[in-house]
TrEMBL record:
Domain LysM: 349-393
The keyword Signal is annotated on this UniProt entry: yes
Keywords from the UniProt entry: Signal
Leader peptide range in chain numbering: 1-25
Organism of derivation: Halomonas koreensis
UniProt keyword Coiled coil, yes or no: no
Family matches, as CDD domains: LysM, MltD-like
Pfam families cross-referenced by the UniProt entry: LysM, SLT
Lineage: Bacteria, Pseudomonadati, Pseudomonadota, Gammaproteobacteria, Oceanospirillales
Protein name: Transglycosylase SLT domain-containing protein
UniProt feature coiled coil, ranges: none
Length: 396
């Protein structure tokens, strides 16, 4: 039971070296966050011509007027592996996880509720690449669809990307930003990663690439050589891998099987529209998150959850290219950002050093990376700040 991709994307020489190093180092080895029992032109972009929760605890998504189109039906139509595993070598291993998950249908409901803002958009990206629909459920296994998830090994985000691998994939990190938590960029990077290593190591075999996504290509390649030496085919189901990796594809297939027939397992899935729930609004001037939320007409908590890569309360053009906003609120925010900031909400462009200030403290206060702040102000000795000294906060 395999699925092959015909994609052969050429990487730049330097990127290939960096990515290959991360793969061979087993950069993705980590614990799954799911409980055992339980930017491009791909999204609308609108351009101009305190992180609180919504009142009463209601999510913005509960108030959306959903159309008849349904993301779950669309996802099921893209499943490619559901008939194969029932007849193949993985039957017993997949059935084990179906039994485990179906014992806690409330856990599945909770996780699929968290998937509501992201599922349709991720599925579009999977469809565009011709990949099996099951791939859209990898965040279920990796992070329980929590964009803020972090593992004890250092992996972060929906796709649980390790720091070194994120660096190789171009996902910037700094005090005010972590690209691994940005759903748009991390999704693109994770799917690139899966396809690229399938092409590089496994002649397009996606299942082997998923094993390498979890354990690292070095671990999978060694296991494959041992299987081939024993006269086996060397596909995923032949390999002796770490326990977590042995369970990785079976978990993915198990949750897809439950989503294919949720009523059979007593699972009630939340209603999710088949179209993306968010649009991308370019950040054309520094803006506080609460100000942006007010202009968009949503809670600060809603905007915060849509932009988990932003690690502070200020979005600056030098750090953040865009904000994700509920689709039907984007034009309001675009119009507001095209106007000068009100005096009472303007983000400071300069910090005047006070007695006791440190460069790291100033950077933290303004959600900036220390290295950026030092570079913008030509600071070679961070310990030599003087009271009254003015520091630019934007690099301009």
């Amino acid at each position: 039971m395999t699925y092959h991709t015909s994609r052969r994307r050429l990487l730049g020489f330097a990127s290939t070296i960096a990515l290959t190093g991360a793969l061979l180092a087993g950069a993705y080895t980590k614990a799954s966050s799911l409980p055992a029992g339980q930017l491009g032109a791909d999204t609308p972009t609108f351009t101009s011509g305190s992180r609180g929760e919504p009142a009463g605890g209601r999510h913005f998504w509960d108030q959306l007027d959903l159309e008849s189109a349904d993301a779950w039906s669309r996802l099921r139509a893209n499943f490619r592996w559901q008939d194969q595993w029932r007849q193949g070598a993985g039957h017993e291993r997949v059935q084990h996880w179906i039994d485990e998950y179906s014992e806690s249908p409330h856990n599945i409901r909770e996780i699929t509720e968290r998937a509501r803002p992201w599922l349709a958009w991720i599925l579009e990206r999977v469809e565009a690449r011709g990949l099996p629909g099951e791939i859209a459920l990898i965040p279920f296994v990796e992070s329980a669809f929590d964009p803020e998830a972090r593992s004890r090994f250092g992996a972060a985000g929906l796709w649980q990307i390790m720091p070194r691998t994120g660096d190789a994939l171009g996902l910037r990190r700094g005090r005010g930003w972590d690209g691994r938590l940005d759903v748009v960029r991390s999704t693109r990077a994770a799917l690139d990663y899966i396809e690229d290593q399938a092409a590089q190591w496994y002649e397009g075999d996606i299942e082997l690439s998923l094993a390498a996504y979890n354990a690292g290509a070095g671990t999978v390649n060694r296991a494959r050589r041992r299987a081939l030496a024993r006269g086996l085919d060397g596909d995923y189901w032949d390999l002796a891998l770490p326990d977590e990796t042995m369970d990785y594809v079976p978990k993915l297939l198990a949750i897809a099987a439950i989503i294919e027939a949720p009523e059979r397992y007593g699972v009630r899935l939340p209603a999710i529209d088949s179209g993306p729930a968010f649009a991308r609004v370019p950040v054309t001037r520094p803006v506080r998150l609460d100000e942006a939320a007010r202009h968009a007409g949503v809670s600060t908590g809603t905007l915060s959850r849509l932009n988990p890569g932003l690690r502070g309360d200020i979005a600056r053009p030098g750090q953040v290219r865009e904000l994700l906003v509920p689709t039907d609120r984007a034009e309001r925010l675009v119009a507001a950002l095209s106007r000068p900031a009100p005096a009472d909400s303007a983000v400071p462009e300069v910090h005047v050093v006070q007695r006791g200030d440190t460069l790291s403290g100033i950077a933290s206060r303004h959600a900036l990376a220390v290295a950026d702040l030092a570079r913008w102000n030509d600071i070679d000795r961070p310990d030599a700040l003087q009271p009254g000294q003015q520091l630019t906060l934007s690099g301009r």
